[in-house]
Amino acid sequence: MSRYLFTPPATVAVPIRGRDELFPIHRIFCVGRNYAAHAREMGVEPDREAPFYFNKSAHHYVASGSMIAYAPETANLQYEMEMVVAIGRGGFRVAAADALDHVFGYACGLDMTRRDIQFALREKQRPWDLAKDFENAAVLSEVVPASITGHPEKGLVQLKLNGEVKQAGDLSDLIHPVPALIAHLSRYYHLQPGDIIYTGTPEGVGPVKPGDRLEGMVEGVGGITLSIGPAE
Description:
Strand content: 35-45%
Shape: globular
Keywords: Hydrolase, Metal-binding
CATH class: Alpha Beta
Structural class: mainly beta
Oligomer: single chain
InterPro entries: Fumarylacetoacetase-like_C, Fumarylacetoacetase_C_sf
Number of strands: 18
CATH architecture: Alpha-Beta Complex
Organism: Parvibaculum sedimenti
Number of domains: 1
Distance between the termini: 36 Å
Protein name: FAA hydrolase family protein
GO molecular function: acetylpyruvate hydrolase activity; metal ion binding
CATH topology: Fumarylacetoacetate hydrolase, domain 2
Helix content: 10-25%
């Protein structure tokens, strides 16, 4: 007889390129405004002093190639194309010089956002949870081991909407690069294997509508696709 009142959720896991094992997601951390041009298009000046974060539930993961319903309670669902870091070894107060030793690999991610809700919450100085942490909001490609990708420091980050390029940035423009993010985040959390970090999006974010198709890529890492279906 089960000790649980109801069946616990299944482990959320992502395919790994070239391997039979899956990468189980522990926590999802997302970095806000980590490209200067994107910060400005959001109406604020970039903060170079320290990164800031928001979270998404692992259970809001969606695999690349999926079709999702247009999100509820928004009239402005938007895409944000990002490189994602997959942590393979835990650590606390990790030195930036050692940070990449904790990276298992990299992936492409889409941070789907209810922008109208985000702006309304921001105006009231409230947390962004309703705008960022909702079903189908964490789209992720397969994880590619760092043994294949190396540790990308530069390379195109691109998003096409229905075949038209909307975002085109470069990893070299990250305000806080991957080693700095890991070092900073590990001051506040004991990082664990399975943690993933969405590293931020370049400028050019924008709205989607039912029937749209998104195609993204990170040079040297891979690609990601998503289709938008009707609202439920």
